[in-house]
Amino acid sequence: MNETVREPRRARGEKFRVRSAVAALCLCAILTGGCAATSTDEPERSQGNQTTSADQPSQSSGQEKAAKTARVVCGPGGTRVLTPRVEARPDGVHFVLDNRFDAEAGYSVEYPEGGGEGYSVPRGESEHVGDFPPGKVRIGCDKPPVDGTDIEHGALEVVDPNGVYKPVELECKSGMIVSGGPAYAPGVKGKRGDLVEITRRSFSDQIRDGDEVELAGYTESRDQRTVRVVRGGRVVATVEYTGRGKGWLQDHYEACASF
Prior knowledge:
mainly beta, 2 helices, 7-stranded antiparallel sheet
């Protein structure tokens, strides 16, 4: 398994366009084993989760009630976000895209700090579940032909009143991050079992007594799961897994250089 050292990444990679560039860089680092060291200011510590009744959607004074499922309309007239606030669920952010173009389109979600995610969408209404974290994001459609150059975004706020999302951002004292991942042969099957225990076995040389190893992000995501390692109250490592068949394959990991 090859590693590269770099400065902290502030946002999750885009799955459709932005992420493709990130994946290419990660693959290059994995194949070449190249390393580059930089330093940066220490990231802020994650705030603790706040919980309220799971049966009640979020509603603050002067704000519209958060929907369980967001609705976005895309068409020749532009992008319209019909639900400005949506509530996070344990498996992610649910939203319906109504594609009113005459052909398949694409959508993208942009984070304020950079990065994002996106996929293609068929004509008509389609249901989606995103893994973007709570906060304000911009969501919009790339009208056909999809080339990433003509996207009109609308504003969407993801709220998490029940604390279902566990932060995955690293909190490294030195500001140095090591990342890497395995390479697989075609047709390899995913591992079955408890991802926390799989992570403990895979990183047994780095995980210390007293470290907390637990699922993070959206812990019930169907396609992507993350396990984080918390040491002394700080997130020092994250391991991402991708669903493959009835099991899981390790996608990549990020860790503080001292992990």
